[in-house]
Specification:
single chain; 279 residues; mainly beta; Thiol Ester Dehydrase, Chain A; Porin; 14-stranded antiparallel sheet; two-stranded antiparallel ribbon; 16 strands; 38% strand; Acyl-CoA_hotdog; HotDog_dom_sf
């Protein structure tokens, strides 16, 4: 029986090239349609590099990954390098970079990553002490499908996803921002692809910025740095996502995120530093 090929897997496909002085090289392509105004979404780029890290190390889950974004990234052919730093019994650590090819045969470094990877399915675990549970959110079917909204003309990535937003948090589209820098919604794929740890990297940056609910323009918010901690493999079904911003200062903002699965288990956390939108 032929294995089903999902769109996200096609968009993050890799071709192993060679290993030179311990550095793993992969050919790939930054696909169109996973972008904001023609520039690839930061979570999509992180997922692309994260998949290369997992392939190079043989460990499927980026337990923690930090990406610094060095330049905007249109669609095109690219190369990823993964450099092992250390490998232990539980975790391995690497650095990685994605280079975008240009028409003159050169290339530009787009994103540089430091990641620690493991296998959460076999992880030995340890003590837990949760100080709170999943925040409240409207049921999946009561949230609005982002691909059906006008925001899709600006953020083309929503046409690739089945993300849904809580109605009051995406009312900025009709000129009625909530006044609270909060964004709540559900992450899912339209073709039913299961959400694994690589997909959580995409989910961390797959919603409109929470600051769109303040008196700021709904414009491009370029990511400077993004960190994701994957805490568990999600149960089947959509993942509830919560994002908020507390400080917009000197043209920069932070956005903190939490992702919870259908069983109310915390599966990922994120924080990013980004440039504030300008009209």
């Amino acid at each position: 029986m032929q294995k089903r090929l999902f769109e996200f897997d096609t968009a993050t496909a890799l071709e192993p090239l060679d290993v030179v002085d311990g550095v793993h090289h992969f050919a790939t392509r930054v696909h169109p349609g996973w972008d904001i105004l023609g520039n690839a979404n930061g979570g999509y780029l992180m997922a692309l590099v994260g998949r290369a890290v997992s392939m190079a190390t043989g460990r499927p889950d980026c337990v923690t990954i930090t990406a610094h974004y060095l330049a905007p990234c249109p669609a095109g052919d690219a190369r990823i390098t993964v450099t092992p730093v250390r490998a232990g019994r539980r975790f391995a650590t690497t650095t990685a970079s994605l280079f975008l090819s240009d028409a003159n045969g050169g290339e530009k470094e787009i994103i540089r990553v430091l990641a620690t990877v493991g296998d959460l399915a076999t992880d030995p675990g340890g003590p837990s002490a949760m100080q709170r549970t999943m925040p409240e959110i409207a049921p999946f079917d009561e949230c609005l499908l982002m691909s059906d909204t006008s925001v899709n003309d600006f953020a083309h990535i929503h046409g690739r996803l089945a993300t849904r937003g809580q109605s009051e948090d995406i009312a900025f589209r009709s000129g009625s921002p909530s006044g609270r820098a909060t964004m709540r919604g559900w992450f899912a794929f339209p073709d039913g692809r299961p959400i694994n740890s690589t997909a959580l990297l995409l989910a961390s940056d797959a919603f409109p910025p929470a600051v769109f609910n303040l008196s700021l323009p709904a414009a491009w918010v370029p990511t400077v740095e993004l960190t994701v901690h994957v805490r568990a493999i999600p149960a089947p079904g959509p993942v509830a996502c919560f994002f908020d911003t507390r400080f917009v200062q000197n043209g920069l903002l932070e956005e903190d995120g939490e992702m919870w699965d259908a069983n109310g288990v915390l599966v990922a956390q994120s924080r990013q530093l980004a440039l504030a939108p300008r009209g």
